[in-house]
Amino acid sequence: xxxxxxxxxxxxxxxxxxxxxxxxxxxxxxxxxxxxxxxxxxxxxxxxxxxxxxxxxxxxxxxxxxxxxxxxxxxxxxxxxxxxxxxxxxxxxxxxxxxxxxxxxxxxxxxxxxxxxxxxxxxxxxxxxxxxxxxxxxxxxxxxxxxxxxxxxxxxxxxxxxxxxxxxxxxxxxxxxxxxxxxxxxxxxxxxxxxxxxxxxxxxxxxxxxxxxxxxxxxxxxxxxxxxxx
Length: 230
Fold this sequence. Notes:
Blueprint: H1 2-8, H2 17-41, H3 56-91, H4 97-101, H5 104-126, E1 128-129, E2 134-135, H6 138-165, H7 168-192, H8 197-211, H9 217-229
Antiparallel strand pairs: 1-2
Helix pairs in contact: 1-7, 2-5, 2-6, 3-5, 3-6, 5-6, 7-8, 8-9
């Protein structure tokens, strides 16, 4: 049973863990980039003029535009992810949803845009001007620009990844890879525990039926023959 627990543990994935970690990383990045901005505000260090992005009005206008576009694209990514999951459940069956939920590109894209939104929002909050003083975090402003640019660049790769994932040959190939790994783990565990071979064989048939939902009857028969040989 241990072999199949190792195999099925990859199915127990969460879509929110990676975005949460990247959001926390964005908060940590904000704290790091605010350090030179605070030092520059107290005239401890000097930021070159070519490194700045204008005055307070220009900074808030840029941050507002970035907040709007990042939030819009983030909502679009969630909509596309839910649409793909619904399509997969209808075309391939709900047992194969884990293959699409655990895709690192989807998780990283959501996390990158969430982190960019949180970072730009924090920079927007600290950018202010009152009657006596004004504070423009130039380093954080430049960093937010690069972060949003990287997020939109990764969005192109995410679109390509989604187009590849929903294709039948790619999905079947990944199912076969999962099945092969399950067979190899079962074989190695059965050899080390001879008294559990019969139990492992029944578990192997069940895993094969779950993983081979999209395979042809001939491929299913061939895979059953492979498991019997192991």
